[in-house]
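note to self: dont lose this again. the chain is below, predicted strucutre after it. 55 aa total, dont forget to put it in the shared folder this time
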Amino acid sequence: MPQRMVKALEDDMQLRGAVPLSAVERARNEIMQIIKEMSEAGEIELTLYQEQTVE
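---
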């Protein structure tokens, strides 16, 4: 992500302040639903990677 976008995102986060966890989870679910719909419609292609584990 370009540094200018990083700065804009950080500034926005500071202005918003603390956000309730329920709002974060609701936004995350909405984003994932949109991604799923776009993937099913063939608009985007998802490549999932297996997360590394530590033993």
